[in-house]
Design brief:
Elements lengths: L15 E5 L2 E4 L4 E4 L2 H4 L8 H11 L13 H13 L6 E5 L24 H4 L3 H18 L8 E4 L2 E2 L5 E2 L2 H14 L2 E5 L23 E4 L10 E5 L1 H4 L15 H16 L2 H20 L5 E7 L2 E6 L8 H13 L2 E2 L1 E3 L5 E4 L7 H21 L1
Parallel strand pairs: 3-13, 5-8, 8-9
Antiparallel strand pairs: 1-2, 2-3, 4-10, 6-7, 9-10, 11-12, 12-15, 14-15
Helix pairs in contact: 2-8, 3-8, 5-6, 9-11, 10-11
The structure holds pyridoxal-5'-phosphate (PLP).
Length: 378
């Protein structure tokens, strides 16, 4: 008998059957509030009628039109739609259908990549400015000792650390990166794979501060669940690459492109980013109420609807067991959530941008019950 490789592991026991908006229904008919959104993918909710219609129309017309072989209209429409939301200097876009991430167990990786400390005030036990000064000093030290500025092509950063624990990068840190990038002629690349397409309450997370990226990477929410990723840069920079040197069998698939065009239109026409900002504020204040007085929640943080609750022991150490218990019990309470962070002690919430106040409140009520039960078992 063929089995599914254990490499693929599910974070919940839920057997999904169908979805609508922020609701996911299992094969037994149980309705869950999905505050995972496929790890920040179903931006317009599950099976938004306009996305479904666009994808169905495209499926019936042309499913694949291999983009290194021929050009297709959904791709051209998508480039035009993205032009309306991308920073103006990023006027050239390349498409693929995935990204890269984890390191443990995968050595050796590409050489010449160095990791610099992220200014996380909670982790260091410092105020934000002290953490930023430390991280920028360490970056300067890396540029002095490990990779000279003349050997350094780019800085790459997520404006809000995703898998790293939903930690927004302080504006002064991004300013410091931009300043060094400009001073040395190094590129600044923003990975907006998880943060982009509205999830932080602005269309791009970096719009919370004043910096402009040289390259922006997008994926996940861009096509409401269809596989698509994109890299945007200036035409001048893109023109330095060898034409035809990059591509992929499934990159810029026509159905994914049609779904992405529909997604961007829904986001614009339905005021979805503003909804995210309002619902995010509501959810954040609810999460803070749940955290208050527990003595075991070190921080509630995030931007827009990308929100995190970080669990700690009574002594202030990371508490992955309590986070796992809260996440598992939340599923029993009908709320799908994921953990993240280096110690897996952070429970993240990233519901679809179209969530309404009633759904936010229902999610918060389930979360309150889950945290109370998890603390009771501890
Ligand atoms: C910020 C960020 N970058 C890159 C990736 C990798 O994308 P993929 O899972 O499609 O390889 C992820 C996935 O979660 C992500 O959150």
């Amino acid at each position: 008998m063929t089995t599914l490789s254990p490499l693929l592991k599910q974070a919940t026991p839920v057997q999904a059957a169908s979805g609508r908006g922020v609701h996911l229904i299992d094969t037994a008919g149980r309705d869950y509030l999905d505050f995972t959104a496929g790890i920040g993918v179903t931006s317009t909710g599950h099976c938004h009628p306009k996305i479904v219609a666009a994808a169905q129309a495209q499926v019936a017309t042309l499913i694949d039109s291999q983009y290194t072989t021929v050009m297709h209209e959904p791709l051209q429409h998508l480039v035009a739609e993205l032009g309306k939301v991308l920073p103006p200097q990023l006027d050239s876009v390349f498409f693929a259908n995935s990204g890269t991430k984890f390191r443990t167990g995968f050595a050796s990786l590409m050489g010449g990549v160095h990791l610099a400390p992220f200014p996380s005030p909670l982790r260091y036990g410092w105020d934000e400015q002290t953490a930023v000064t430390f991280a920028l000093n360490e970056l300067d030290f890396i540029l002095q000792t490990l990779t000279a500025p003349s050997d350094t092509a780019a800085f790459i950063i997520e404006p809000v650390l995703g898998e790293g624990g939903y930690i927004p990068a302080p504006a002064s840190f991004l300013d410091g990166l931009r300043e060094r990038a400009d001073g040395y002629g190094i590129l600044l690349i923003l990975d907006e794979v998880q943060t982009g397409i509205g999830w932080t309450g602005k269309f791009w997370a970096h719009q919370h501060c004043d910096i402009a990226p040289d390259i922006l990477i997008t994926a996940k929410g861009i096509a409401s669940g269809f596989p698509l990723s994109g890299i945007a840069a200036s035409s001048a920079m893109m023109s330095k690459a060898l034409p035809g040197s990059q591509g992929g069998t499934y990159g810029a698939n026509a159905v994914a492109c049609a779904a992405a065009v529909a997604t961007l239109r829904v986001i614009e026409e339905d005021g979805v980013v503003a909804n995210c900002a309002a619902m995010g504020a509501r959810q954040r204040s609810g999460l803070k109420k749940v955290a208050a007085g527990t003595g075991r929640i070190a921080e509630v943080r995030g931007l827009g609807l990308m929100l995190a609750t970080e669990f700690s022991t009574a002594d202030g150490a990371p508490d992955p067991a309590l986070a796992a218990a809260a996440q598992r019990i939340a599923v029993e309470e009908g709320l799908l959530l994921l953990t993240c962070g280096p110690w897996n002690n952070v429970v993240r919430m990233i519901p679809a941008l179209v969530i309404n106040a009633e759904e936010v409140d229902a999610g918060l009520a389930a979360w309150d019950r889950a945290v109370t039960r998890a603390l009771g078992q501890n």
